[in-house]
Protein 1
Amino acid sequence: VSKQEELEKNKKELEQVRAEKFSVMKQQEQEVKNLAKQKEDKDKAVSSLRARERELLADLRKKQTESARLQKQIEDLIKKEIEEANRRKNVKKVEGSAMPMTTQEIETSRGFSGNRGRMPWPVDNGAISSKFGEHPHPVLPGIKVKNNGIDIVTRNNTQVRAVFNGNVSAVFSLPNGNKAVILRHGEFLTVYSNMSSVNVKKDDAVKLNEVIGVVTADNEDNTSVFHFEIWREKSLENPENWLIRR
């Protein structure tokens, strides 16, 4: 009887050990399956990222081309306006400025300068998606992007307003078919880009908060990216230093 009890005890212990080993084996099999699934998901993610990277690089090159063209147009415009200003009558040389200006233009320029940090945003709603200057690309590693202004994510078809009194220096189309407007405020320029339509033409006088156009409808999720720049003659300014804090 004692031997039988001992055998029964040993049998139960062996069954318990066997059950534990079986459980460990099942756990290991599940871990192998999980690892295989993780590898499969990782491979898919890498493949997707590579495709996305090509798309992002193509988009980046496109934006760089558009930015370079816009910058060239602005620089040519400034050069032309300085040449024209030198031929005008009733203009004055202003210290620190390459462009001779009329008395009214000097007042406008001073008014613009005096409103640094207090100007309204060119669109009523939205948030900055890309800041001024050179900074790392938000997705592509090792890639830096340079922004001559700021990009603002806003709703499709949002109205674009002048941030200060001025005159329309130029209205032109971008390579993607969208439109841009440049306003002059004495020695300052403001650039409003990526609009589907505009309400002004060259040489028009505009007032503070006057609607000059409508932001294009880029995406199906009802959001668009509006681009805004500020120049002081040939020097770029950070628009965030001029707009009122939100």
Note: The helical segments are 2-87, 103-114.
Protein 2
Amino acid sequence: MGLLDLITPALRAPADCVIRVDDQEIAELYPFLREVTAECSRDEASTARLVFETQRDEHGRWTVQDRGILTPWKQIVIEAAFGQHTEELFRGFIRVILADYPNESGAATVTVECQDASLALDREHVRHAWGIDAPTTDGEIVTEIASRHNLTLATKPGSGLSNLTLYQNSTDIRFLRARAAANGYELYFRAGDMYFGPMQLDAHPQPTIMVYAGLDTNCLSLSVTSDGHLPNKVAFDLSPAAGTEITRKEIGPDLVSLGTEPADAGGEGLKDFTWLLSREGSFDEDELTARAQGRVNEFALRVRANGELDGTLYGHVLLPGLPVAVDGPGDWLGGVYYVDRVSHRFDLDGYRQQIRLLRNAYGDNLD
């Protein structure tokens, strides 16, 4: 079955790709659609790419680019339809239109590149002093910026650092990403919402990924790596308030365990495995502590899995920034993982999801 068969409205099957531009399904362009990909992450802008074949009619008009449907800054939503229900995998704006006219006219294509809602926050350079009248928090700053762009927050934003007096001299998205880094937070946009806060390892796991499970198998391949050469702690030096003695502060991970046995660097009898954080332009102890906490938490996710899901068999859109259960890799490597990144692909071969998962523990903790 080809992509055209999968996305013909009257013949929809599981793992169908549904595309809406300005709230209108682009059904008239489906016959020319050849590939849809989307890159979704918990700490970077999500992007999507659509590739169409295009043909010129007897009047010199092209079937895709001359319809006026696909133009920059139109809103676009991409969904995966599984039988009677759909799940959104991308929402944002059309950013780039590339019409390619090679030597053979039959090979002409139109490529549409898209970016999530963060694109709209990168249009205006803002100079603003935060906390001048009264010191503020990162949570209050994020709430005000979200309101300014008519964005809703997925959850109450993390409070972040407090007692702040900051000067913004950048676009809103660049400023927000800098504040997320300062707090060791994640920042992403999904389904019209913005998330600004810590990793959500304690959230309810997404539907189970099944490895070597007979007819229930939905994972086509999985490769798991455990890297022992990642530090157990992150440290930073504080300048003395008086005298010349430098104080060193060490931070360990504070994440919820995703298994039954912590995955640390081990090395009994060896020297402590500690990574030294540079000041990164900050001399504030609270900010250095938050940056160190975020860095060591990332290091703690030393068990990493890469794999591929059959989207039809899985029956769901796997979301970054949330846990997922993985059943089948065994007593040591099976259990709950954290979704770092998902690459979606609809083409003539169906629907696939390339996944990257993280874990800070060993041991199968599934019921």
Note: The two ends are 37 Å apart (CA to CA).
Protein 3
Amino acid sequence: MKICFIVGSFPYMDCGVGDYTSMIANALARIGNEVSVITSVNANSDVDNIEVHNIVDKFNYSSIKLIIRELKKINPDIIHIQYPSHGFYNRKITSILLPLMIKKKIKKSKLVETVHEYPKYSWKGKCIYWINYKIMDKTIFAEEYYNNLIKKDFPNMYKKLNISNIPIGSNIPQSSICELDKKKLIDKLGLSNKKIITYFGFARPNKGIDDLFKAISVIKDENIKVLYIGELRENNEYEKSLLELMEELNIKDKFVITGYIKTNIEVADYLSISDVCVLPFKDGVKERYGSFLAACTQKIKIITTSMEEREDEEGIYYIRPNDSNSLAFKIKEVIDNKNIRSNKKVNDWNDLAKLYVQAYNDINVK
């Protein structure tokens, strides 16, 4: 089967949907499909097993003809849009016009979209998404929870959609670093004999990073250090506000900030040295959240949040969002126990690729 993905970003651009697309595209290629990707000019094109067409400067109206022309050259059986992603954000008109033009100009190919987010509040946004679902030959949701939201918003029209629910896997592989190399990495980071808390992810307001900062400020343990796997930049308004909060709370010396890390293997190694990974999402953890899945893959202890009362799992601890005091208490409670590890199963990408092929084949049956 010839499959062409269209996505606003792709490694090494900093976007989880781009990383996701890379992982599922590779998995589909491994099981015998011919896979290509149309993406941003900023993406890496030197990728094994996948043909990367990094040709789009901006995903706007003027790029539609370019994408259509490239699709005609590729001539795929399946055209698969990943939405939203960096590059597709704030391009609402393009997100409708592009699939409409594809359906008009390339009649042979089947059109599929994976939905990574569903707008909860804006009816304008919901209607734009709905138009997309209606255009598609198949819509894939990365989280089954979205089904309930769409049934609620569009109960009559929902029945006419061709929907599959396919979860995501971790963009970050399990670390294979040995104990000796772990020690070397810890020494390199200046974390020898420290209790290591890790945070991993892009800095976004819904990540609860401010709650982590506040929790660290009230923990009076000189041996605790936070390995912040990500960026905090002065030229980014939100990240700058976090740096200012760090200064205000006088906790700068508690943090080691890695900056953006290009390779997923290196991220895995950094996560693997932690005593506990803290992910205090403002809206509660979701099964599609890549940083949570990455931590689960390393089998490390995790403290995260839930909007509902939720029982702790083995090595995974839940608190309510926006509660820095409870977070501080939970960190002190679990960080010293070296014998506990998380044991949550993470979906294998090869298995997910088979579900994708099944979804593609289902288009012809529907």
Note: The longest strand covers residues 34-40.
Protein 4
Amino acid sequence: MCRQYKDKHFLFYSYEEPKWEIMIKLLNMSGTKQFTHQEGIKSNLDRWKYEFKHTDIETLKKKANNDKEYSEYSGLKNFLDISPRIHLISSGHNVIDLVDSIQSFEKAFNVGAVFIDSLQKIYPGNEKSTIERQPQLQDISGLLRKLANETRFPLIVSAQLTSGPKGSPEYDDLWEENLRG
């Protein structure tokens, strides 16, 4: 999306993973060529983690800009081009603070989309609520839907699904009761 919409900013609120892990995953997805196998490092993602822990940023930038000798670093070059427009937020926001934060970003930037991981980790503004979790999630979803309608940019929220017993024939079907967490 960042490459397609060069005038837009994208927000990623993570209630699940630290910013560092998300940044490494985005960097990993930005490249067209994977790293070659290195002893002790099994995946491309692990290689990026290794590179950032063992190589200074200026050396990494030089490798990224030298396509001929270091084509494996093209992902870093691509990521550096788009990263100023990606805002990663390790979030502990309750829904009220989350909505305020998104509205603040909207005032400061031309927002293209907002990603939130994950719905079940967002809590209502009143932390001492005695309401059961399902009605809380419905209220939170309602506030996020209202925000999406007001802002008119995509608001993509992940949620974990539950499934029926593995032995049942409907196991792969999505039923309303399977969406309740």
Note: The first helix runs from residue 19 to 30.
